Amino acid sequence: MTESRGEKIFYAVNYVVLSICALAALYPFLYVLFASISSPEAVVTGEVVFLPQDLTWDAYAAVFKEQAIWTGYANTVYYTVIGTLASMAFTICGAYALSKRRLLGRKLFNMLIAFTLIFQAGMIPTYLNFRSMDMLDTRLAIVLGFAITTFNVIILRTFFQEIPEEMEEAARMDGAGEASVLWRIVLPLSRAALATIALFYAVARWNGYLWAMILLKDPDKIPLQVLLNRLVVQMKPTDTMLADSAFTVGETIVYATIIVAVVPIVAVYPFIQKYFVKGVMIGSLKG
């Protein structure tokens, strides 16, 4: 099919606009990367624009020698893995129960859960709640305190509702209980949905820093993102960095720390992007 002149102009303008948007989104990441491998003098004087200047790896050497970085990495991995498992366990149980029409008070429970999408307790009441439960400065507060996201529960509940009830009834006729139906019938049929929800939780856990910064005071418990916030926003280097001559690399160490923090999720994202796209459509169509 031959394209008209107007269509050619339209596509050309689209390509130009989208290319500019892509470059605008990509440039900050490239700048941080170039600055992290440039000399501090070149960064401070503004010589680093599109390419690194005076190539050096001193900033990364300083970062990898800093114990706080590795401690933060370990904590981030712990909160991501354990937190995601806890989130999936609670979300699956809640979504499965809410997907059953025979659940007493189902409409009320669904309404109360959906209500939290619009109205939340707020930061101060939430903090006071953690304090009253003696959960301040504990890993349990991060793992269980934010285990469930209402949006994910609703998505998974809708997906569970699309599974034919005849399959569950056949399993019950064979003597299967609710736990057996969930484990042997529902979950195997929901692998795509479970993968998507798990990735939503994992990415949120990896990037989360606000409540960890508020609730955790022990340096041995804070995740990497809190440490990064102190370096980038509050400009508070650790005592080891201040004592180490390698910290003389200046603000380039901040850029190097940013790269070290984002590389894992950036490396994994191309392989999991399809699940994020699929997550937009999960539960939107009735089978």
Automatic annotation (TrEMBL):
One GO BP: transmembrane transport
GO cellular component entries: plasma membrane
Residue ranges of coiled coil: none
UniProt KW keywords: Cell membrane, Membrane, Transmembrane, Transmembrane helix, Transport
Main location: membrane
A Pfam family matched in the record: BPD_transp_1
Transmembrane segments: 12-34, 77-96, 108-128, 140-160, 181-203, 253-272
Keyword Transmembrane helix: yes
Family annotation (InterPro entries): MetI-like (IPR000515), MetI-like_sf (IPR035906)
Subcellular location: Cell membrane
Its membrane topology: Multi-pass membrane protein
ABC transmembrane type-1 domain ranges (all copies): 73-270
Similarity comment: family membership: Belongs to the binding-protein-dependent transport system permease family.
Name listed for the protein in its UniProt record: Carbohydrate ABC transporter permease
Organism, as annotated: Paenibacillus arenilitoris
